[in-house]
Amino acid sequence: MQVSVEAPNKLERKVTVVVPTQTLDDAFDKRISKLAQTVKVNGYREGKVPLDVVKLRFGETARKEALSEVIQSSLYAAIAQEKLLPAGTPVVEPKTIAPGQPLEFVAMFEVMPVIDSVHFKVTKIEKEISVVDDEAVDNVIQRLREQHIRWHAVTRPAQEKDQAVIDFTGSIDGKPFPNGQAHDYAIVLGSKMMIPGFEEGIIGMKVGEEKTISLKFPEKYFAKEVAGKETEFLIKVIRVLEPELPEMTSAFVKKIGVKEGEVENLRSEIRKNLERELVRVVNHKLKVQVFDELLKQNEIEIPKALIEREAKRIHDQLHPHHPGEEHHHSDAEMDEFRDAAKKQVAVGLLVAELVKSHKINVTAEEMEKYATNLASAYEKPDEVKKWYLQDRRQRAEIEMQLLEEKLVQALLEKVTVTEKHVKYSELVK
User: Fold this and answer.
1) How would you class 229 by CB atoms within 10 Å of its CB: exposed for 0-12, middle for 13-18, buried for 19 or more?
2) Of 79, 89, 72, which Cα lies nearest the Cα of 303?
3) Residue pLDDT, tens place only, 235-266
4) CA-to-CA distance for 386 and 414, rounded, in angstroms?
5) From residue 162, how far is each of 145, 213, 303 by CA, in Å?
6) What pLDDT is stored for residue 322 in this prediction?
7) Cα dihedral across residues 259, 262, 263, 269: positive or negative
8) How far apart are the C-alpha atoms of 111 and 88, rounded to whole Å?
9) CA atoms within 13 A on the CB side of 42
10) Of 48, 62, 321, 325, which is most buried by a Cβ count within 10 Å?
11) Within 13 Å, how many C-alpha atoms sit on residue 342's CB side?
12) In order of start, what are the domains of the chain with their CATH numbers?
């Protein structure tokens, strides 16, 4: 086998492979012999079909399969021989497939960038810290109460925080537009779920009242066909309901999962969860600062294949859908995914190199401790912990989190870290 490698640019590789005729012939003969043991041909017993008959009936298929097998095995051998690290799936183009002639093909692919060293020169860094205050606990309790709101119909005009049930029809230049109509649509006024001005236009309306309001879709509205356009909405109010928040009684506290039924027990549990989340947020913000510095100080070229793969992962994470289901985004939206993906991949490559150079590893005990802490926020912590440690994806995620945390600690050993106290709501918003 002959192998030659060209480098059109820093990351692309063009590998030309020439495979001896005998290699392809041997693969073809092996495939035919295997077929002869199982194929069924009228007039012959299974396993007793002459090779000439097998070649005549199945030769073309066997040759294609042998060709695919030889290309795959020889390409892997060539990549290993040349010590290349492909960043994506090679694109293969056969050049010569003439009978009696050596097989020649070309494979194009990107390789992983070579990172000789990673720079991190920072003298000081600011770490934002906070404490869980009563206001933070009160906000959680308020959200819990809002999740259990009871709605009561009223005859007065609609006001903020009411739930209005409406029919509406939207039109642009006098014509209805797709997805611009709804019947018996419930919306909480002030929730900002609709475009600016829509909910405000309902305030003051009574049951049975109709009204047309003129609005403009935001320039960056997700539906590009209506973004930035002037529109009119004909709105009819069907019902108006006012909220009734549940009282903080023992029964309500038990209803939301606190067996003791005491408000103080609920507040204590909420505070513990918020403190656990605060630690995560503080560490995450510090990590982001460190990784941003790494990106500033280390410019590396990123293979397009890695960017596309990560962009697809981010896309699917933000917009989950069933396998095989079509799910399209505009080029502008995909570019946003690619920008985020490029940053994520660059950080990943730099972190991997630093983890290796600092000889950082994670022990089983550290994994278990981390999983225990994560699971403690759930009702059945033992089951959740078991899932974290047995699920391959979750386990890999935990290991990566621990590696990154230990790396940040290592990088900050010689850095002056100053603490800045900020309000809890500002830190976690």
Assistant:
1) middle
2) 89
3) 999 999 999 999 998 999 988 888 888 899 99
4) 37
5) 15, 19, 52
6) 60
7) negative
8) 8
9) 0
10) 62
11) 12
12) 2-110 (3.30.70.1050), 150-244 (3.10.50.40), 253-428 (1.10.3120.10)
Place of tokens 């809002």: 146
Structure token digits, residue 89: 């799936």
Global pTM? Answer: 0.73
Find all residues with CB under 8 Å of 113, minimum gap 6, and list them. Answer: 10, 11, 300, 301, 302, 303, 349
